[in-house]
Amino acid sequence: MMLDLRQIQYFACLYEQRSVTRAARSLNVVQPALSMQISRLEKRLGINLFKRTARGMIPTAAGDAMYRLYLPVLLDLKHANQQVMELSGKVLGKIAVGIIPSITNSVLADVLRRYGAKYRTSKFGSTKPIAER
Description:
Elements: H1 5-17, H2 20-27, H3 31-45, E1 50-53, E2 56-59, H4 61-87, H5 101-118
Antiparallel strand pairs: 1-2
Helix pairs in contact: 1-2, 1-3, 1-4, 2-3
């Protein structure tokens, strides 16, 4: 029986996040879709991977075992994908930059503009400073 890669990725994210809300946000999917895929995966396997509580999702022993077994596979797939993309000259990954607001416009804007010109498929985002969270 082959499992759906997307379901395994959803499972791993939920396992790491321990929250449907946080996992859905991380995966850029709506919560019902994530919950449905996890339920389908559990039904297909015939085991509960999580104990659902008011405080979040707690992995069962089967969930712990599945994560331990599938994480190396997911990491290998990610690494293989990066290697193939490098053959085409594409750049993958995330860059996190810590910078004080007073120099954001003078330094960061120019760096992002040059980087974006070189790597046109890049996407940029931002988060609030830790002090504002």
